[in-house]
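Anyone else keep sequences and structure tokens together like this?

Example one:
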Amino acid sequence: MYMGPLEASKPWNTRDIIGVFRFLQRAWRLVVDEKSGEVLFAAATDPKIEKLLHRTIHRVAEDIERLSLNTAIAALIELVNASTRPTGMTDHTAGGMTRDQLERFVTILWPFAPHIADELALRIGVVGGLYGRAWPSHDASLLFESEVEIPVQIQGKIRARLLVPIASDAATIESLALAHADVVAAIAQRPVKKVIVVAGRMVNIVV
């Protein structure tokens, strides 16, 4: 399923299976500590992970309807990668997913890896298994970005990055860029000759 569209011919290559195997390993470690067997829950909901989870729930459901199973799996991989705790993190409650998030995650994982998903569901306390379980709902307002990150270049080199509302006009972006502490320091009181703003893409300052 992961190797490409169902209707496309794909040469069999065992090396292509490694990526899926590693994904399932990361999915397992997201829930279970491999050394202690302890179930791992984040203490608080990370808004970025929550937003990505809603998008993944929506995307996987649509991809299953279209039989685009490879892109559905790609969405699950993206979610797991974003949720994976950094190497060396000693406090597992500071990263990963909350119990509620994990319950929704294993539910959408189940169509592709039912045995692992059922085992993970059992570990986190889901009663009765996942077969026949309702698909998690998603919040449509979380499916679209409200902000965009824009690099700010000075003399062609990136000196700062701005996080601005996606609907910001060029004048607003320019004023935010010129007021950014890193930009002020890089300009070093030199007169600004020109500011080029490509809305939603970049800011280029010429001094």
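And example two:
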Amino acid sequence: MGRPKGPARDTRSLILAHAFDLFSTAGYRAVTVKDIAAAVGIKDASLYNYFPSKQQLFDEVLGRERDYARATLAAATRPFRPTGKGPVADGGAFQDLVIDAIEPLFADERLLALRRLLTVTQFESEEADQLYQELFIDLLQGYFRSLLDSVVAARVLDQCNTVTAAAELHGVLFVLLAQNKRWSEARPRAMAYIRAFERNHSS
């Protein structure tokens, strides 16, 4: 059986969207099927025509938002390429790449909602806990390590343990993220820290 088409598909999309909004605000346990159905404007029984259980609906919400987050973060994380204009310009390129990588975490409304959802449900759901670890810790630290490997090889930064340095870079930026600041406020603070990080790792 293929995916539903027309009004049925629209209703299914509405259910997923409203469920995501509710789960990201109150968490999995606090949200009922009745809450979701009311938000969509359908009867409780009608919702079960699209999703057999609240758990299956939650799993599909997570899957949809996981795919969106992976694609968004992948698009924001670009490799380092020397500018050919010397270490100062290369250092600026490094700073820009870090800023570009973290901007969606502060500015993308769907990623902000997903982080809220995973934060409130990570102790209720092993899948949510694993996804939080993947998207907001492992993925970013992995990118920072790859980026640092490149800038160290290009002699923009001094030789260092890039695993430790990536964790250091991620740690302070993650604290900033946890403060729930808007990007307009977070960006200058992040840039100041990245510049300090670069100075501390340069001769």
